[in-house]
Predict the structure of Protein kinase domain-containing protein.
Amino acid sequence: HDHGFRAEIRTLGSIRHRNIVRLLAFCTNDREANVLVYEYMGGGSLGEVLHGKGGGFLAWDRRYRIALEAARGLCYLHHDCSPMIVHRDVKSNNILLGDDLEAHVADFGLAKFLRSGSGGGAANAGASECMSAVAGSYGYIAPGTLHPSTLIASISRLVTYTCDCFCL
């Protein structure tokens, strides 16, 4: 357990992307009490902005920019990190906003770290590993993860992308 946690800390601590919240420090002890310290995001979460008290108004061009910035962060995790990181819980409460409302992907509690070399390359290893367990928040889980068939998985990618952007 401790080895896995430390490996995740090393990986998350090495991520440097403008649309990923930065891990600044961590603390752990023998009783498995782990504390992660991330950079402060003064704009709160996208969920709070959209659904919180007094919130709800974001111009469409701002919503588009937030979606694009979050997608850039996720693209970095999928294509530029080693090991590849699959977030598995993308939702409005896990997109934090800076003071300038720039989007930052946060909350890696359910993230899966996929190592290449399992035969067939990272993309194939990732597909089989990700499908082995369902993770995420109700209302945001891709339908294809619940009924894994090629057709449903293909449709679910479109549906999930559309739903995630539509929630903005």
